[in-house]
Amino acid sequence: MVPVSLIVAFVGGVVSFLSPCVLPIIPGFLAYLAGTELDGNHSQRWGIFINSIFFVLGFSLVFAVLGVVLNSVLSGAAYAVQRWVARVGGVLIIFFGLYLTGLLKIPFLEREHAFVVKKRFSSRYLTSLLFGAAFAAGWTPCVGAALGAILAIAATEPARAFSLLFCYSLGLGLPFLLVGLFAAQAQHLIQRLGVWLQYLSIAFGVLLIALGILVFTENLSLIANWSLLNSVLLR
Fold first, then answer.
1. What is the rounded CA–CA span in Å between residue 152 and residue 97?
2. pTM for this predicted structure
């Protein structure tokens, strides 16, 4: 059975992608990195898709390093330290959950940001890779609530830190690849779905609040026990 924290991490990646300050500009940005236009041309579509692969690899590498660092730093910590990390992590998860539901305002996370490509390299793939890494390191004001919550969960479960960040990258990266493959069509779909994105954010915020409470009270195992009981009863 897949641990619930890994599922939350994957969903967090999807929610980050669907952030209102990220999603609308993704098709055009990927096309810009590929040096083409969003006209649906077959060869240009594959060019955008290949560049999106390198873009996803860029931010996935950064998140992988974060996972390894968290695991290395916290896995050997004393039990008392890990308990306090769990308490602080639980509070942070609740904090970000409240923000995503709209019940809490964080000015830093509400600033408008935009992709600004100041330098492009001779290789479009290298450019995409480096800007993918820059996305992970510098776009946190836009996706910070979901990413911050996943990092807090990773801090409370250091043994799963790498897996959590990998699942987050997967949730964030797969939509990027789909948009890269169908950039022209995605642009129209994004415009139609924009009004519903806030509801997804609220739902994920509620999930984070519940998860944060369980982490803070050290009762996260209740979810696993409940799932195990259900699987036994359904046999």
1. 12
2. 0.80
